[in-house]
What we know:
Structural class: alpha+beta
Helix content: 25-40%
Strand order of the largest sheet: 1-2-3-4
Strand content: 15-25%
Number of strands: 6
Shape: globular
Radius of gyration: 20 Å
Low-confidence stretches: none
Amino acid sequence: LIVRTELDAVTKNAISGEDQYVTVKALNEFDHKAQGSGGALDWRTKLVSARGAVVATEMKNNSCKLARWTVQSIIANADVMKLGFVSRANPKSNDRHVILGVIGWKPRDFAAQMNLSLSNGWGIVRTIVDMCMSQPEGKYVLVKDPNKQILRLYNVPSSSFEEEAEEEAEIAEEEEEE
């Protein structure tokens, strides 16, 4: 199995002076007053005073995203995973943002905090592969249900997505000609 990974930065360890590999990710603040906010906290007031509560809430509301980032960091052999907390400068404007804070963890420590098991992750990969291999040859779409912890595999017509692929190829050809 070959896995392509990525690192975002290299920093010097403050104590040993050795290079440390870093992955950098950002969470966007959700309007904590909006319906369906999942109990999100106001980051502007709580990030400093109740950092643990903010992180715990994000682990609950963004568990899939944080698990993916953590596993990517572990597989990339990153020494540190930095997580930025980003908010809109003005809630009604989507073009200006501010970084409210950055928190760093060792990826394996963060995985333990999330109760994330790498061996369980590889078991999930194996289950998905087995599920796909048990299907007849064809074209399928794997979809995660947004409201449940379930994956669904849909059989789609073999001509699905071909128009989109052709359009993308035409656009790429036009860009090459320019």
